[in-house]
Amino acid sequence: MSFENLAVVENEHWLEVTIQRPKALNALNGQTMVELAAVTRQLEEDQDLRGMILTGAGEKAFVAGADIGELTDLDAGQAARFSLQGQAVFTAIERASRPVIAGVNGFALGGGCELALACHLRVLARTARIGLPEVGLGVIPGYGGTQRLARIVGLGRALEILLTGDMITAEEAYRIGFANRVVEPENLLETCREIARAIDKRGPRAVSLALQAAVRGGAMPIEEGLAFEASLFGLAAATEDWKEGTAAFLGKRAPEFRGR
Ligand code: CO8
User: Fold this and answer.
1) What pLDDT is attached to residue 42?
2) Which of 120, 139, 162, 171 is least buried, going by the fewest C-beta atoms within 10 A?
3) Among 39, 1, 34, which residue's Cα sits nearest to residue 18?
4) pLDDT tens-digit readout, 191-242
5) Per-domain residue ranges for the chain?
6) Catalytic residue check, 256
7) Catalytic residue, candidates 10, 114, 229, 244
8) Inter-helix orientation angle 222-237/240-250, to 10°
9) Ligand 1 contacts CB of residue 154 (under 6 A)
10) From atom 41 of ligand 1, which residue's Cα is the shortest distance away?
11) Angle at Cα 242 formed by Cα 123 and Cα 92, nearest 5°?
12) Taking a C-beta distance cutoff of 8 angstroms, is the pair 21, 5 a contact?
């Protein structure tokens, strides 16, 4: 598959995806959203893949938002439709059956912050800045930011970011629970890969089921989420990895998971 605005390589069974529109600080135009949807489908369809790492090209920006040039002339119907279409792309990332790690290398603003929020883990370069500056443009977040930020950092902190439109530093993002880790910029990609390797040591089917239980179950009322967890626990019990992992522990040896 070839892309205009994404560079995609496979490394150790993980897709490494770099968003590259350097002239617009990697802002998400329509074409880039189509390509993000395609690469997310690829992650779902290729059973050899273990996950995806998403980052931005260059040192300055992860993604500086939706492409503002494409927003100016939207009427109400078009704007709502664009919002729904973009939300569907980010929801597909969030609901991916294998982990997606955002390597946030610089500005993650507006739609870029919303993209990072749709990923399962966020590793930030010390120089990164995040924010939802939309209200300063007379716009509001439309790719899930009003919903996902509060679920991750709590409503009070999310509202300050949403209503002031001010950026926060990587350290502050870590303090409030937005970032899983903050690292030196030169170590960003390698840290994402280290996390990927740590995940890869575990049972692949269990990783996938645990991810789905947490993400999909987390969007349900607690009773339904618990019932969903129990049903996935049942599915896990039917895998070879379950038998192998438990037998290896009891046999005091390292497991050899096959992802079946
Ligand atoms: N869209 C289009 N172009 C952009 C964007 C963007 N979001 N961000 C930066 N650029 C362009 C600039 O216009 C500039 O282009 P040029 O060189 O041709 O003038 C180039 O990138 C470099 O940017 P700057 O010169 O501004 O670089 P600075 O270092 O001075 O500033 C900033 C960096 C602070 C990141 C600044 O560029 C900025 O504030 N960018 C806009 C950030 C923003 O407001 N993002 C939110 C956009 S709205 C949004 O994301 C809504 C999402 C939901 C949409 C749902 C429905 C579609």
Assistant:
1) 98
2) 171
3) 39
4) 999 999 999 999 999 999 999 999 999 999 999 999 999 999 999 999 999 9
5) 6-200, 204-250
6) no
7) 114
8) 80
9) no
10) 64
11) 40
12) yes
Q: Is 134 in the pocket of ligand 1 (CB under 6 A)?
A: yes
Ligand 1 centroid – CA 65 distance (Å): 6
* Length of the chain as a residue count: 260
95: which DSSP letter?
A: T
Pocket flag, ligand 1, residue 82 (CB < 6 Å): yes
Q: Is 184 a catalytic residue?
A: no
Q: Identify the CATH class of 204-250.
A: mainly alpha
How confident is the model over 88-102, as pLDDT tens digits? Answer: 999 999 999 999 999
For domain 6-200, the CATH architecture is: Alpha-Beta Complex (3.90)
State pTM to two decimals: 0.98
Torsion of CA 61, 63, 65, 69, to 10 degrees: 80
Residue 199 C-alpha to ligand 1 middle, in angstroms?
A: 34
